[in-house]
């Protein structure tokens, strides 16, 4: 048959023109075309002060980099808490874009409630999606989020799923989002009370960290994000840990120059890790989650009354103690880590974190941590300060010992 | 101040250890860390017959490739139309996995309605997301969709946003999904009547095309997907168009060997285009959408009574005619394209596609096409058979002329 001949002929032909491997799988009488490509993602993380001051051209310069024949829209969504502390912001943003001809500010500057509640409220997600429709915000337009980590996660998710992804700019306003979460590639919302059950990996096109927003944080908010810097120093960068040790007291006393340095160094370390590792977490390992298996569980057990940063400090203390009692880390180093956390103003013990026996509730965090990523349990411990080591099992007796050791300090 | 010194020192230090470009932007007193990484995506597209026959080990072999220490779950979502035609499928899938120890079939095989309605129904999306929760389907588990393009788009979207992306396997059952949509990287659902308003770019981990499913399609469904093969041949592959011309009549008569070839060749060409181009459509151009600006509008104008494939055939006829009347393509070539479409059983004219003046409704499709991708209007035309050419403007007078020329055939 002519067509059958053609089929034979063209399987061969496709192999040639595709320059792809086309195998004939003889046993199953099947053929395969193997697809493979890489997608490049690039974004800049800026550090500045007074981003929307008329004299600060950083954001405008960034927007003008992307030449275009069409006027691009820019839509702002702002955390209510930020707007309350920085009431001038609405007017300042409008002034900032008032003389722009190639960028059209969308008239509505949307204000949404901040904190974890933002991620629990489906109507907020749909409010942003509806604005995309209402204002004809296309893929080449910009959605800018100003706020803490929860608002950035919410807006980032809305931007990622609308039209399969609208350009997204993040302006984090807390220590935690500036030094860790906002400079990464994840977004998400909660679903039926499950944290980040819905979300995507979608890098922003740019991040602008404005240190001035940090001046209006409460002391607890200021401190909260520091634990992620301690974490990344411990697993990656001994000199940074030494610096944190030296500066723990002034950081606790809200020295801004020290904080600027901390934020930049921590952000750079997190970014370097993302770029050199597994950005979209296709494997089972998540090295940046040192101290997080128990922290996530504690947050949940406390009904989220323990803040993420406080919980991470407690988790770091526990896993550092475990690294010591399991023979990986010296007692001096473990003690030094705990001292830095205490100098920063963190607690290192909490009733819900105590491990007395196998039924201690925080232990359930191990299996939940495994489940979230799937595959084999993978936990980061310390073999030295600045040096992480992955293990696939934690021993309950040693966890009890670690918990007891923390109780002696 | 000591801390200030440290800041200076460490900006330099970060530059060294990050091996990233860290600029000091003097004018704005800002710093920047530039992030850049590539993510590799790879997936196999298989072509077979009777995928779930006990003797066909193709799917099992694929699943066993990914070694794991944990038992992986596999969850099936099946198009109701497919299940109606292939009632044995439920039992066949259960038998296929009955002796597996490393793969655990989720007990529920979910059946969802097919066709565009699947993408208009939020409760269906949530039904799949809820199953992910209920059956603890983690990122290393598999969600498999069996069905036409709409069901694959719905299930693919649910898989992409649950836990930020669960491994997704597609088993397309129509010509249109096997030769075009299912072998690509997009998913999506409709929102407030807007097609694909919500969605992501998320490559599957594998695609299995089972030709046997094509035997139960209606004649209209069988024909519908052929227009995408004609389209990709016209913009990329003159020999494939010559083959289509030679085989148009036997294709219309449902010759399966000819169809197998068409599906494989069309899928390979689409895949090659995705890999070599702009897989996640970050630019303004979408070359594979030859003939689609008017097709999308016609679908909408007809209240979706005109099928996508039929609309694309009409769109190809119009843009081929425009390529001729604008001096790009010879009249003989334009005539040859129209003849192939007619031999395949497609209509080349439709009252809603006629362009008599500027107020003809289909013309609005141009602006809507631009809006969807954003940026500058970019339309693919033909400079020869097998050779596309992008333009940024269509002339209304020439569109009228093209429409009139089609009326003379």
Automatic annotation (TrEMBL), chains A, B:
EC nos: 4.2.3.4
GO function terms (MF aspect): 3-dehydroquinate synthase activity
Protein biosynthesis among keywords: no
Keywords for this protein: Amino-acid biosynthesis, Aromatic amino acid biosynthesis, Cobalt, Lyase, Metal-binding, NAD
SUPFAM superfamilies: Dehydroquinate synthase-like
Domain 3-dehydroquinate synthase C-terminal: 225-353
Cofactor dependency: Co(2+); NAD(+)
InterPro entries: Dehydroquinate_synthase, DHQ_synth_fam, DHQS/DOIS_N, DHQS_C
Gene3D superfamilies noted in UniProt: 3.40.50.1970, Dehydroquinate synthase-like - alpha domain (1.20.1090.10)
Protein name, as recorded: 3-dehydroquinate synthase
Residues annotated as domain 3-dehydroquinate synthase N-terminal: 110-223
Pfam families per the UniProt record, alphabetical: DHQ_synthase, DHQS_C
């Amino acid at each position: 048959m002519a067509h059958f001949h053609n089929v034979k002929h063209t399987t061969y032909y496709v192999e040639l023109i595709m320059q792809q491997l086309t195998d004939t799988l003889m046993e199953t009488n099947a053929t395969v075309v193997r697809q493979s490509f890489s997608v490049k993602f690039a974004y800049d993380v800026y550090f500045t002060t007074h981003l929307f001051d008329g004299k600060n051209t950083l954001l405008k310069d960034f927007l003008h980099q992307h030449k275009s024949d069409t006027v691009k829209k820019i839509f702002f969504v702002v955390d209510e808490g930020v707007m309350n502390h920085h009431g001038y912001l609405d007017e300042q943003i409008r002034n900032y874009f008032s003389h722009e001809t190639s960028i059209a500010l969308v008239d509505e500057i949307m204000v949404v409630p901040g904190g974890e509640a933002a991620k629990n409220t489906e109507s907020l997600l749909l409010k942003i999606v509806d604005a995309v429709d209402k204002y004809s915000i296309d893929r080449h337009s910009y959605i800018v989020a100003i706020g803490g980590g929860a608002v950035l996660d919410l807006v980032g998710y809305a931007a990622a799923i609308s039209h399969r992804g609208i350009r997204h700019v993040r302006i984090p306003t807390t220590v935690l989002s500036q030094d860790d979460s906002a400079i990464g590639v994840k977004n998400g919302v909660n679903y039926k009370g499950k944290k980040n059950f819905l979300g995507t990996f979608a890098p922003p096109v740019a991040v602008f960290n404005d240190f001035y927003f940090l001046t209006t944080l409460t002391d607890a908010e200021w401190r909260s994000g520091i634990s992620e810097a301690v974490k990344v120093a411990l697993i990656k960068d001994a000199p940074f840990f030494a610096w944190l040790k030296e500066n723990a007291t002034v950081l606790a006393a809200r020295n801004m120059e020290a904080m600027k340095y901390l934020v930049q160094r921590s952000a750079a370390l997190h970014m370097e890790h993302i770029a050199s590792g597994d950005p979209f977490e296709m494997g089972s390992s998540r090295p940046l989650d040192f101290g997080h298996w128990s922290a996530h569980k504690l947050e949940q057990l406390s009904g989220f009354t323990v803040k993420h940063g406080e919980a991470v400090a407690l988790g770091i203390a526990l896993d550092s103690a475990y690294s010591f009692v399991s023979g990986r880390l010296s007692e001096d180093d473990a003690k030094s880590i705990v001292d830095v956390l205490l100098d920063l103003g963190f607690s290192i013990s909490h009733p819900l974190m105590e491990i007395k026996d196998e039924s201690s509730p925080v232990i359930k965090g191990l299996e939940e941590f495994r489940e979230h990523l799937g595959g084999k349990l993978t936990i980061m411990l310390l073999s030295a300060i600045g040096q992480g080591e992955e293990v696939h099992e934690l021993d309950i007796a040693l966890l009890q010992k670690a918990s007891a050791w923390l109780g002696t300090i």
